[in-house]
Amino acid sequence: MPETRLSVRKTYKLYIGGAFPRSESGRTYLVDGDNVALASRKDARDAVVAARKAQPKWAAATAYNRGQVLYRIAEMIEARRAEFKALGVAGSEVSASIDRWVWYAGWSDKIAQVTGNANPVAGPFFNLSSPEPTGVVGVVAPASLLGLTSVLAPAVVTGNTVVAIAPGPQVAVTLAEVLATSDVPGGVINVLTGHPAEIAPWLASHDDVNGLDLTGIDDPELATELERTAAGTLKRVRRPGATDFTGDPGLGAMTAFLETKTVWHPKGF
Fold first, then answer.
1. pTM score above 0.85
2. Helices 220-231 and 196-205, interaxial angle, to 10°?
3. Which of 66, 126, 132, 196 could form a disulfide with 265 if both were Cys (CB 3.0 to 4.6 A apart)?
4. How many alpha carbons fall within 13 Å on the CB side of residue 155?
């Protein structure tokens, strides 16, 4: 007997503070026939509040623990590989994204040794430089799964929290569902679906956002305007760059949102 029931259509919602709310404005938009929440500036402010609340505890977690959390994300993407492939993500890209989460997980307890230093000084002192997270980072993400992974993982592995604007909403929200079922604390990664030109200026001007990653911006005029706006609050800005994420990611994405703190301590005490 043929099935007569109607399938339940999925609404792609925002991901803020570990929950999946609709936009406070009630707005939605269609993407490839799917209903997607259209984030507003109020949603962006709520996401920043969630990210700021989560940041001290996330930064205080041990590097080893953060690495475990990122590895768990990779495990969960592997388990939900079929969902991403159903959204049109190539199997090779899913594999590359999983590998990238694992790669950054491995750097969690090594980046301090590579970017920190014991400095030679003239005097009976220890002089130590150590990297610390910048804080809350606003990210305009690329639409692809690998691109999204390549901007989220390096920001959070070092102790930052993220508010990401995702132009590819189905893939981004499915990744958010992975995060929600992993060990990622609520607020560490927040995902806003909508138009970067509408939401990004509010992140660029927000006093409680410490960094801005413009990797996913493909409009040079918008990128310039966001950089100019971010300068008003002395944000660290990562400019748009190459869109090929298949190569060696290097350390640049991690060090972009690290600050080096140097301390002096007398010897013999």
1. yes
2. 20
3. 126
4. 31
